[in-house]
TrEMBL record:
The lineage of its organism: Bacteria, Pseudomonadati, Pseudomonadota, Alphaproteobacteria, Sphingomonadales. ATP binds at residues 200, 202-204. InterPro entries: AAA+_ATPase, Chromosome_initiator_DnaA, Chromosome_initiator_DnaA-like, Chromosome_initiator_DnaA_CS, DnaA_C, DnaA_dom, DnaA_N_dom, DnaA_N_sf. This is Chromosomal replication initiator protein DnaA. The gene is dnaA. Residues 374-493 are annotated as: Domain IV, binds dsDNA. It holds the Pfam family DnaA_N. GO terms for molecular function: ATP binding; DNA replication origin binding; lipid binding. Domain I is involved in oligomerization and binding regulators, domain II is flexibile and of varying length in different bacteria, domain III forms the AAA+ region, while domain IV binds dsDNA.
């Protein structure tokens, strides 16, 4: 049935087909192009998901990748949006899979230059963490807070984060030993354990490892792992659905409570109070508790004093940033997971020295480099690393100057600064000067002639000789290698 729109005088069609006003051939064509683009993106995403499912396994894929929804693609910026339903899941995917997703999309569609993972606008629903047959059924309704908190004990632990895959060094050995003690069958000497570390230094890894080890040591153990954000969300949902009695009873029925990113519980008074009562109840029954945060308990502003007291009453174990030796060990350990990867020693040394902010970026950089090399058929090289890891490298590089290098070397060898540019040929002066030239080439982007000019106008061939000599001495002379390592630590700290 057709008629005239009294307000505009335009023809409209009624009878259930909707308005046809304003439609033009140009708009129809644009709409068709848009739909074709969406279908092409969806097809590429389907192929990418097939590969990710094969690489990650069914559980990790179902839990973290399956919920991702394809967003819009901006041709001008080359940015593709991927959406997840909660901040927790978006952050988790960003931390662990951002590089992999970005590389997969760049290979599938060259025009995709950036992949942005964020929370779906206006949505904050919980991710269904159930495993088994129900996890494969997209139409099963999400669990209630009580169901979710019961099942997170088994589904919340990442199978790859164990003590076996954790690499120890001087800065994290205390936390590692304390975590193992918490997971042992014997009653721990302290509880709770509080792991404090900056982002990406291994505190989450140790929490997961505690859960896995305890589950293996104690048959039938009930373990609850979650983030503080997740705890608060479950608490609020239980409160709204009048399920607080069941929520408390089930939460306090666990043998081990593992709470990550405890700093995010700041300011949530009701959730803080419930966590406090839960800690008290579990401690009274001899249960085990471990928490992790990016700051010490005393630095948690907005946390109720009684809760601060409980968090710090056991052992607070600090994880220091990984030094260059530990970063090398982590990269070498990671390489054992790749069956067909040939990564030269100079690339490992370059990554260990350059990506120093956190371990997560370090491992992510290696993964990205190897994945790119395998997918494109190129050999892993120093040039490839510099080309493909530009963003990570630029974010980690601290600009070290030749003046700073000369100053540090002179202090180390107890020389006057003027000796760096002097003409003296005494061995006690020449060798430190050569070390400084070597460090200038390793740690700065300066060319050989530029370095030579900073050392009293010396010829570039002198600098090349110094660099090659120190490289050779490091392989044959343990004392020289120790001196250079010590100077590198000072300059990179």
């Amino acid at each position: 049935m057709s008629g005239m729109d009294g307000g505009t005088g335009r023809m409209t069609r009624t009878g259930g087909f909707g308005s046809l006003a304003g439609r033009t051939p140009e708009k129809d064509k644009a709409s068709e192009m848009f739909e074709e683009e969406r279908e092409a993106l969806a097809a590429d995403w389907s192929d990418i998901c097939t590969g990710l499912k094969k690489d990650l396994g069914h559980q990790l894929y179902s839990q973290w990748i399956r919920p991702i929804e394809l967003g819009s693609f901006c041709q001008e910026t080359g940015t593709l949006d991927l959406f997840l339903p909660t901040e927790f899941s978006a952050n988790w995917v960003n931390d662990r899979f951002a590089d992999r997703l970005s590389l997969a999309w760049k290979i599938a569609r060259s025009e995709v230059r950036n992949v942005r993972v964020s929370v779906h606008p206006g949505r904050r629903k919980m991710v269904d963490l159930r495993v088994g047959p129900a996890a494969a059924n997209d139409h099963v309704p999400p669990p209630s807070p009580v169901e979710a908190i019961t099942e997170m004990g088994s589904a919340g632990l990442d199978p790859s984060l164990t003590f076996t895959t954790f690499v120890t060094g001087e800065g994290n050995v205390l936390a590692y030993n304390a975590a193992q003690r918490m997971a042992a069958t014997e009653a721990p000497q302290f509880s709770p354990l509080y792991l404090k570390a900056a982002t990406g230094q291994g505190k989450t890894h140790l929490l997961h490892a505690i859960g896995h080890q305890f589950a293996a040591a104690k048959a039938g153990a009930r373990i609850f792992y979650c983030s503080a954000e997740r705890f608060m969300v479950e608490f609020v949902q239980a409160l709204r659905q009048n399920q607080m009695i069941e929520f408390k009873a089930r939460l306090r029925g666990f043998d081990m409570l593992l709470v990550d990113d405890i700093q995010f519980i700041i300011g949530k008074a009701s959730a803080q109070e419930e966590l406090l009562y839960t800690i008290d109840a579990l401690l009274q029954e001899g249960k085990r508790l471990a928490f992790a945060a990016d700051r010490a308990p005393q630095a948690l502003d907005g946390v109720e004093p009684r809760l601060l007291s409980r968090l710090s009453m056991g052992l607070v174990a600090d994880i220091q940033p990984a030094d260059i030796d530990l970063r090398r060990k982590i990269l070498e350990h990671r390489l054992t997971r790749f069956t067909s990867s040939d990564v030269p020693d100079d690339v490992i040394e370059f990554l260990a020295r350059t990506i120093s902010r956190n371990v997560r970026e370090l491992v992510g950089g290696l993964n990205k480099l190897i994945a790119y090399a395998q997918l494109t058929g190129q050999p892993v090289s120093l040039q490839l690393a510099e080309e493909q890891l530009t963003d990570i490298l630029s974010a980690n590089r601290r600009r070290i100057t030749i003046d700073e290098i000369q100053r540090t070397v002179c202090q180390f060898y107890r020389l006057d600064r003027s000796e760096m540019a002097s003409k003296r040929r005494a061995r006690a002066v020449v060798r430190p000067r050569q070390v400084a030239m070597y460090l200038a080439k390793v740690l700065t982007p300066r060319s050989y002639p530029e370095i030579g000019r900073k050392f009293g106008g010396r010829d570039h061939s002198t600098v090349i000789h110094a660099v090659r000599l120190i490289e050779d001495l490091r392989t044959r002379d343990a004392d020289m290698d120790g001196d250079v390592r010590s100077l590198l630590r000072q300059l990179e700290s």
